[in-house]
Amino acid sequence: MTDTTTSSDTSDSGTSDAGSGVEKVAKLIAGFRFAMMTTRSADGKLVARPLTVQDVEFDGDLWFIVARDSHEIAEITADSVVNVSFSSSDTWVSLSGVAEQVDDDAKLKELWNPAVDAWFPNGPEDPNATLVKVVSDSAEYWDTPGGRVATVFSLLKSRITGTPYDGGENEKVEL
């Protein structure tokens, strides 16, 4: 792992070690159930699709259950570079990495939950159910502690004082 670099950070000295960067990213995405995974289509266009995050303990890897015959599998087979993003009213996280299809029955059963049955009614034994593992190599996040109230306050303060908007914490993290 390498050091964390900061593009704009209002909460600390601007640098932190990679371990604390991973911890911060893990903390930020812990509350998200859904992510947008961006892949490259056969004609070269970027395509983002919502997927449900299956593993809640982020260690740099993300897991998704998808259909074996899906566009996602075809696209990551052709070009494994992906982006996974998370967004709320006060937190944004963008992860870059490499995706791969993983056929691992034990892992599929471990990650299976009742919500997945809506897409695969035959359970984890469904031959069309497979895993996508995204190994993240970097992340960038924007976090506005205090949520909307703090954001509105910062916007008003910027407007009144004529100073640039101080929108919270933004860091790039090498994972």
TrEMBL record:
Tell me the Gene3D superfamilies matching this sequence.
Answer: Electron Transport, Fmn-binding Protein, Chain A
Ranges for domain General stress protein FMN-binding split barrel come to 22-166
Query: Entry's InterPro entries?
Result: Split_barrel_FMN-bd (IPR012349), Stress-Dev_Protein (IPR052917), YdaG_split_barrel_FMN-bd (IPR038725)
Name the record gives this protein:
Pyridoxamine 5'-phosphate oxidase
